[in-house]
Structure formats: C-alpha cells, structure tokens
Specification:
CATH architecture of the largest domain: Alpha-Beta Complex
Radius of gyration: 21 Å
Number of domains: 2
Strand order of the largest sheet: 1-2-3-5-4
CATH superfamily of the largest domain: Aminoglycoside phosphotransferase (APH), C-terminal lobe
Largest sheet: 5 strands, antiparallel
Low-confidence stretches: 330-345
CATH class of the largest domain: Alpha Beta
Length: about 350
Amino acid sequence: MQRQRAIEHWLARLFPGKAFSLAPASSDASFRRYFRVTWQDATTAIVMDAPPAHEDLHPWLQVQQLFHAAGAAVPDILARELEQGFLLISDLGATTYLDILRHATPQQAYPHYLAALDTLVDIQRASRAGMLPEYDRALLKRELDLFPDWYVARHLGVEMGNAQRQQLAAVFEKILTVNLAEPKVYVHRDYHSRNLMLPVAAGKPGVIDFQDAVYGPISYDLVSLLKDAYIEWEEEQALDWLIRYWEKARQADLPVNPDFAVFHRDYEWMGVQRHLKVLGIFARLYHRDGKDGYLKDMPLVAKYLRGAVSRYDELTPLRRLLDLLEDKVTVFGHTMPAGQLKAKP
C-alpha cells in the first residue's frame, strides 16, 4: 500500500487537478507490478512499479528503444520516475494472445501467429551486436543447471548419483554446442502468448515484458512462441508456422540455415535447453518464492521436452534420466491431469 500511495502522489503531481482511479493490471514472476490508471475522460495508461531494491528499469528502457526502432508495437514511455522505480507507459489493452488463443481453432489462430512471426522478423532484422547482453555459454549453462538443482533435487526429491550427474553434464555440453553455433539476433526470451497483446497497430501484436532481452540464438524466441508453456498446438501445426517463419526469415535476409532440416534440428535442441530451464524456474518460483500458479503448466513443458529428446540419439542419457523420473512422478508420462502435480516437501 505504501508504494501504491507513492504512485498516486506521483500521478497527482504529473496531472494536477485530473481525477483518476488506480487498479491492479497484472503482475509477473518478478517483483514488478502493473497498475491501470483511468482518468475521468476514460483515457488510460499503465504504471509499472519496479522497486529499485529489486528491479532495474534501465534494461526495460533500453530494449523499448531498440524494439520500437525495429517497428515492434511496444508501449510508449509517457513519464518516468527512476529514483522511485516508476514508469508511466501507454496501455496496450488487457487482452493477451492467450486470452484469444485458448478458445481458438488453428484456422482462427493462424493470422495471430503470422502477425507474431512478422514482428519477430522485424526485431531480428534490426539486431546489432553489442547492444544487448550476450546470451553466452555461462548464461545458457546457468539456466540448464536450474533443472537438476530445482526441479530434480528440490521439487521431485530425487538425488542423482555421480554417474548420472556426469552423464547429464555431458549432454548439457552437447546442447550448448548446438545452441551456441546458431546465428545471433535480438532475443526477447519470453516471446509467448502471455506477453503478446491483441493487435494494437496495423495488425501488429503488442509486445511486453521484454526487459530480459539478450543477443543470442536465432531460434530461441520461436521455441517460446511455438512450444508455448501455456497453450499447446498439434506438432504439425507448430511445424507449419515454423516453416512460415523460415520462409519469411530467408526473404528478410536473416541468417537462418538454408537447409530447413538443420534449422529444425537447431530449433528442437534450443527447445530442450529452454524447457529444462523452465521446469527449473517453475519449481524455483514455487519452492523459493511461494508462487504455485506455474505448477499446472509443468506437464506441457515436460511433454515438449520428452518429445524432443526422444528424437535424437545424442540425447539418450537425458531420456534415460526422464525415464527414471517417471517412477517418481507421472508428469513426464502425462497421465496426471493438469494441476494435480504434488510437490515434494
């Protein structure tokens, strides 16, 4: 309440004499919160509340400039108070892609995905080295380590032996080698249905939650979008959209592999890295941060992971580990209804 009162005082100073109401808009997995400001004339804006002790607004501001220059529909900056951690930004609405797509047929979803792919190509085409942090080996490996540390050990209560750890480490090195060999572009890192808003301008989706963007593998955001942790499409449909992207990327002279089979392999292995990370993050959000809202999404993430590792012999040690974990919890076998996963104490 103290920060909300500080926001109200800030807005009153910015717009003297203009009455407004303030209501929660959304929150995310970090310390950031969002409020929707509504004035008497029905105009609205969004206040981002990023406590300086926990959040740095400068990365958001930098990526906003880069993505805006690329032609993406990101929020405009209306006012800032960096010392207190406040931003006033334009309101992209309250309807996410997920809100639309969870009730859509593939045919109804098609134009939304094509628009999202067009925006992604625009962002990637604007990429320049040295503008964003590198998605380097150290960061990719740190993310992979979330899986054994938080998902396997803490969430499932499974203690791996030395041989298993060595095998997993060897697989991690293979995954990293493929990931790091990809061409590099701007990477949103969470380019999925919860961070894309109902098209706001010329059919473009609004793009939010981009403050963690990096410069890294070109297939990463495609995995986020087409192997979305929050909504599932048939593999054939996702593959069709992937082909559409590959064609658009080649037309835009992006550095995608001219051999689609190789490009698809890279995409799959990037998915393995992301889904191992996401399982670890969802477990950490629950055990460390007390946020259980992501537990219901674990089975779908695990399904993507299982599908990919079953297709590549080089990932056999990881598949065997998943086989062992199935004896501990049915999440990898998908026999448990979503939302019924029980965490280990």
